[in-house]
Amino acid sequence: MSLATVAVLFEEWHETGGAPRGYVGGAWIDADSAERFDVTDPATGETIATVPRMGRAETCRAVRAAEEAWVSWRTRPARERAAILLDWRDCVLAAEDSLAELMVREQGKPLREAVTEIRYAASFLEWFAEEAKRAYGETIPGDAAQTRVTVQRQPIGVGAAITPWNFPAAMVTRKAGPALAAGCTLVLKPAEQTPLSAIALVALAEQAGVPAGVLNLVTGDAADAPEIGAELTENEDVRKVSFTGSTEVGRLLMRQAATTVKSLSLELGGNAPFIVFDDADLVAAVDGLVQCKYRNAGQTCISANRVLVARSVYDQFIALLTDRVRELNVGSGLDDATDVGPLIDRPALTKVIEHVADAERRGAKVVLGGQPHELGGTFFQPTIVRDVPATAQAFHEETFGPVAFLHPFDDEDEAIRLANDTPYGLAAYFYAQDVDRVWRVSEGLESGMVGINQPMLSTATAPFGGVKQSGLGREGSRHGLDDWLEMKYICQVIKPGSTDGDR
Aldehyde dehydrogenase domain: which residues (predicted)? Predict the structure, then answer.
């Protein structure tokens, strides 16, 4: 996509002449300081756009706009909110190609993966449009004859959504969909690396008829994030914060939100084990690992981070995996032949290099790859490292890169123990055929999500979230709406009526 095409895209949607802006109270605005920061293409290093550097003052106004809009949005019939969300979905799908190309330019993933993400993003708008009409209450038998007990579910209020760079479209709708469906209003802060996808989605929401103030967007670079985050967590009008990102930042937001006792949804770091048992279909397991590990260049929170393989099939599995990974093409996401795009930035590349080097220092052997790619920039070779000890950094931190770290195990108990030996518990995967083993292992893994002979877990219909230090709450499914609703218990005493009179 050319810069001219990007400019036309924005000009058509919100008449800014191609200069992306923030969105507050139904108006497209620049930063108070008029400062902007660059958004770059990770494949080329080229600046593709500039975006406003907003801070605490603009964020405060966005919260105020959301609070004012909540008064009418919360009382709007659920079917009307649902109709608007469905219109937003239609607008997203109609702009699928442009949104996907825009995502590739700012995030780097292959175009076919970007198209899949846009459809995934649209699915949350459809799902929660339907769930909006199912925010059911309860009637509870009272403990006295004239007592009536009911429970209503009502929108929490103004919410804040802080989204990551690795899925810059889907994470917006996975938060905005249930928030708006429930009757909440929202202030959105996208990652500084990928604000353009969020801006485009908000522009489409405006086009779909989302009222002014219901959905607001503030942008800022890494230096602005602490101010924006502090306002969102400390402002008393914000009742809920939903964040997807690192556990380190999640802890900070949790501490800040404690001052006003906010509701929190936190989808944080992962360290997913991928277990291959001796009764697994090895070809299927290899295909599954390639999807789970090398998709988005390994930059997903549910990527396989530790590959545990039964010793009896260890060498055979590595041989099959090596043949398969050797076929992967590295390049620009806009090239149809590309399987693995660039890493998001230099710090990401540095971390991957360090994890491979650390594993080698501890006795592991690189089977394939192991170096920055000859394309330069932030490209890294699809890599396989074998005999990685459990003490290696990669076994205790997310690598977030296209590297599979393998370790053999001797029995089922050892595999489960190694898989659970982490403070994280977002996703886990295993390949096996024995039905009894399937039950034992799936119940023994300390993880919020488990894929059994299945490497792709994400869907709008299922609850997405983790345990331990991988976060709080669930997104997607019917449970995703509950995170944006409060329960109100109502107890009423009814005066007894007369039994006399005509019949």
Answer: 28-490
Closest CA to 294 of 429, 425, 400: 400
Asked whether the predicted pLDDT for residue 10 surpasses 70, the reply is no
Listed in sequence order, the residues at least 6 apart from 436 whose beta carbon sits closer than 8 Å to its beta carbon are none
**What is the sign, positive or negative, of the torsion defined by CA atoms of 429, 433, 436, 437?**
negative
Catalytic pick from 101, 117, 206, 267?
Answer: 267
Active site residue 267: yes
* Residue 389 confidence class, pLDDT cut points 50, 70, 90: very high
> d(Cα 101, Cα 217) in Å, to the nearest integer?
21
The dihedral through the CA atoms of 214, 136, 257, 344 has a sign that is negative
Sorted by where each starts, the structural domains of the chain and their CATH numbers stand as 4-268+470-489 (3.40.605.10), 272-452 (3.40.309.10)
pLDDT band with cut points at 50, 70 and 90 for residue 496: confident
